Amino acid sequence: MKRRVLVTGGAGFLGSHLCDRLINDGFDVLCVDNYYTGTKANVAHLIGNPFFEPMRHDVTFPLYVEVDQIYNLACPASPIHYQHDPIQTTKTSVHGSINILGLAKRLNARIFQASTSEVYGDPEEHPQQEQYWGRVNPIGPRSCYDEGKRCAETLFFDYHRQHRLEIKVARIFNTYGPRMHPNDGRVVSNFIVQALQGDDITIYGDGMQTRSFCYVDDMIEGFIRMMESEAGLTGPVNLGNPDEISMLELAETILRLTDSPSKLIFKPLPTNDPRKRQPDISLAREKLSWEPKVTLDDGLRETIEYFKKMFQTFDPALTLP
Ligand SMILES: NC(=O)c1ccc[n+]([C@@H]2O[C@H](COP(=O)([O-])OP(=O)(O)OC[C@H]3O[C@@H](n4cnc5c(N)ncnc54)[C@H](O)[C@@H]3O)[C@@H](O)[C@H]2O)c1
């Protein structure tokens, strides 16, 4: 019999790729989403597949379904979206985790949490290892996301200690690829959209702050390996690409790959924006035999193709609230 898997946030960027992968791997997928930042278009190609079932539901309310495994991804991930309704963002991370952990407890199901590198805040340590506790501002505009995700991790570990629940916590670093939202303000999608439309490319600060970017297929491989890992491995495990690139270099790479005439313009850095962020993925290498394989140029080419097609065929389902 096929194993049944619940993916919360399944119509989002990462969630929809995870649904694709799980269906390919022979799972029966229940995709739960309230379409806050995800879109039906992301999973439209799966409609009609007998092993895919979409369900509109907000995880801040209890959910009663029967599944064997759970991936908890529901949560807006980009600053523009999570700051739009910060109270709902905290509720999604905290109440959402309580509800989905309660479900996992009732079913005795293994549960994966999509945590984030943002739990490290503006770190004093580079690269960040899992045992680093982070430096997070609890009262700033990013706190709804950062502290919500930190509290979600706390809940996962308390359910593990108190109820022996099998948890798998992954700390995800910046990921990019097809199905990123064009207006989500994330740097890769911003630069690509600006380059394809011939608009100025906006760089915040001096452009020397660095990030590392993991291609979505590599990230999804990491999720699956984490979920299928040995019983004692709870995480947190960092998943991301350790290759650092400055924002200036990224902009120049995208200009080259799109052959765009766009110019670079500079604007002030937003509040609490980290100068540097880089994962230490030694643990993922050791325990999951995982590391990113897709080069930045190859990943960007796929992503650019996706956005080109999107602009050629306007789809109203992609419009955000
Ligand atoms: N993409 C990244 O670089 C990245 C980095 C770190 C962590 N993450 C985490 O991975 C997960 C997926 O991120 P993503 O990039 O796919 O973002 P996304 O915004 O595309 O996907 C999140 C999905 O969750 C849904 N959602 C939001 N609130 C919900 C609620 N209350 N009930 C039900 N569904 C809800 C949204 O509609 C959307 O489909 C998130 O938890 C995010 O925090 C992503």
Can you put this structure into words, describing what you see?
The chain is 37% helix and 17% strand. The chain contains 9 helices and 13 strands. A 7-stranded parallel sheet has the order 3-2-1-4-5-6-11, sandwiched between helices. Helix 5 runs parallel beside helix 7. The protein starts with a strand and ends in a 9-residue tail after the last helix. Nicotinamide-adenine-dinucleotide (NAD) is lined by residues 8-9, 11-15, 33-38, 58-60, 73-77, 92, 96, 114, 116, 172, 174-175. Nicotinamide-adenine-dinucleotide binds next to helix 1, helix 3 and strand 5.
Strand-residue proportion: 15-25%
Task: Give the overall form.
Answer: globular
* Terminal Cα span: 40 Å
Low-confidence stretches: none
Average of per-residue pLDDT values: 94
The SSE string, one letter per element, is: EHEEEHHEHEEHEEEHEEHEHH
Distinct helical segment count? 9
User: What is the percent of helical residues?
Assistant: 25-40%
SS class: alpha/beta
How would a textbook summarize the main sheet?
Answer: 7 strands, parallel
Bound molecules: nicotinamide-adenine-dinucleotide
The tally of beta strands, per DSSP, is 13
Strand order of the largest sheet: 3-2-1-4-5-6-11
Q: Using only CA atoms, what is the Rg?
A: 19 Å
